[in-house]
């Protein structure tokens, strides 16, 4: 008689949710599998750790906490005050700042708080133009910040793809903005915080460094810090920092009162305490030596991937990258960015289509794609894998041009096979 070996049942990842709402549980499970099986190259995405995810779903969700530690409008804050103070202390330690506010709900409200603290409707503000790599909330016309304030924009040089600080200085001295933003969403090069600080001081502006994309690189010592130069630092807490979907404002002590008042009661009510806790966890992780290794690996992977793409004849904005992000101009490949991005998605390679500087195409159908290395680095992929990633991108873009679905399906299998050896943090699958 033969016996069948005993097997251990695989537990359901979300048993309570599966019982209460199987439809939603199935959707979450599908997303978990998608994040596990696909190569995520969107530079603003990453994998949060299991500890960060767990903190995000605790009973801290149940508590209203309008105000700040020791100065709340609700009772029963004995524990919540400790949680927020812990997150603030860790932010100050990791980034070396005098003041930190961990209450902003996300990056856009954090930037709105900056406007409320230092400007009035109709004032002139200055930031990088959205098509050049800036962010909507840096005074761009379709944003509330461009409607309520007079936004003036700087860009990058057409011949180099880089910011020309002489041009920025000339514009700032001409327009005399109340606020100057440096930073953006599609900047592949190191930000010269010292140069921007000189311009802000000469023009009488408050300098705000928006480090949402590079906060993790700064925390890990892989990008220069704006702390010695910027009056205010705005950042999200996910992206390269690998925390929850939240934000922080950091500053010199002299600006603490104005910023805190702008966040609450200026823009928000009660903070999301479960997010504050998850921010605290992420900042503890960012203080570990292994995080420094991760941050430098993100940059090394991006540099290696850029080299491999250039070797395959791809045009990279500014010629390459200094950080986690690569912006590819597909004009010479005769493939629109949107077409390429959608084909790559079918191949299990997740990117986003993106405008390139001086793009002749429309923003919803631009010439470029934007890629980055945070997520694949968090999974453990290294520089030795970047030639393969470049090959996959090349094959996917070529298949997009010829509408070769069979080639995309073959790629998807290869991607999933490689990633199966590199489990993603925080995923139960």
From TrEMBL:
Its cofactor is pyridoxal 5'-phosphate. It comes from Streptomyces paludis. Residues 17-392 form the Serine hydroxymethyltransferase-like domain. Transmembrane segments: none annotated. It is an enzyme of class 2 (transferase). The lineage of its organism: Bacteria, Bacillati, Actinomycetota, Actinomycetes, Kitasatosporales. GO terms for cellular component: cytosol. The modification N6-(pyridoxal phosphate)lysine is found at residue 239. Catalyzes the reversible interconversion of serine and glycine with tetrahydrofolate (THF) serving as the one-carbon carrier. This reaction serves as the major source of one-carbon groups required for the biosynthesis of purines, thymidylate, methionine, and other important biomolecules. Also exhibits THF-independent aldolase activity toward beta-hydroxyamino acids, producing glycine and aldehydes, via a retro-aldol mechanism. Thus, is able to catalyze the cleavage of L-allo-threonine. This is Serine hydroxymethyltransferase. Homodimer.
């Amino acid at each position: 008689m033969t016996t069948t070996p005993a097997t251990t049942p695989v537990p359901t990842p979300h048993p309570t949710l599966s019982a209460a709402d199987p439809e939603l549980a199935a959707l979450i499970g599908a997303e978990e599998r998608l994040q596990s099986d696909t190569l995520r190259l969107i530079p603003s995405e990453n994998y949060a750790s299991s500890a960060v995810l767990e903190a995000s779903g605790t009973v801290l969700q149940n508590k209203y906490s309008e105000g700040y530690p020791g100065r709340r409008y609700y009772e029963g804050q004995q524990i919540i005050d400790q949680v927020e103070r812990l997150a603030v202390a860790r932010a100050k330690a990791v980034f070396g700042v005098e003041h930190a506010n961990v209450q902003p709900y996300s990056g856009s409200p954090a930037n709105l708080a900056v406007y409320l603290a230092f400007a009035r409707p109709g004032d002139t503000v200055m930031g990088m133009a959205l098509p050049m790599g800036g962010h909507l909330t840096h005074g761009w016309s379709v944003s509330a910040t461009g409607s309520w304030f007079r936004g003036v924009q700087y860009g990058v040089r057409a011949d180099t793809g880089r910011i020309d600080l002489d041009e920025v200085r000339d514009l700032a001295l001409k327009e005399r903005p109340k606020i100057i933003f440096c930073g953006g969403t599609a900047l592949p090069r190191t930000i010269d915080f010292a140069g921007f600080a000189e311009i802000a001081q000469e023009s009488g502006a408050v300098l705000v460094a928006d480090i949402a994309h590079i906060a993790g690189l700064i925390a890990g010592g892989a990008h220069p810090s704006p702390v010695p130069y910027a009056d205010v630092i705005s950042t999200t807490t996910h992206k390269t920092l690998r925390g929850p979907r939240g934000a922080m404002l950091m500053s010199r002590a002299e600006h603490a009162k104005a910023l805190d008042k702008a966040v609450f009661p200026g823009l928000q009510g009660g903070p999301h305490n479960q997010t504050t806790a998850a921010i605290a966890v992420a900042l503890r992780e960012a203080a570990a030596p292994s995080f420094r290794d991760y941050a430098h690996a993100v940059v090394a992977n991006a540099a290696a991937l850029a080299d491999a793409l250039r070797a395959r004849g791809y045009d990279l904005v500014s010629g390459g990258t200094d950080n986690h992000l690569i912006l590819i101009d597909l004009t010479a490949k005769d493939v629109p960015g949107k077409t390429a991005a959608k084909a790559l998605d079918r191949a299990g390679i997740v990117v986003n289509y993106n405008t390139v500087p001086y793009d002749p195409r429309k923003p919803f159908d631009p010439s470029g794609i934007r890629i980055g290395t945070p997520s694949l680095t968090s999974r453990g992929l290294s520089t030795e894998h970047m030639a393969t990633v470049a090959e996959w991108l090349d094959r996917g873009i070529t298949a997009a041009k010829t509408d070769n679905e069979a080639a995309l399906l073959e790629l998807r299998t290869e991607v999933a096979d490689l990633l199966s050896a590199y489990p993603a943090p925080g995923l139960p699958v």
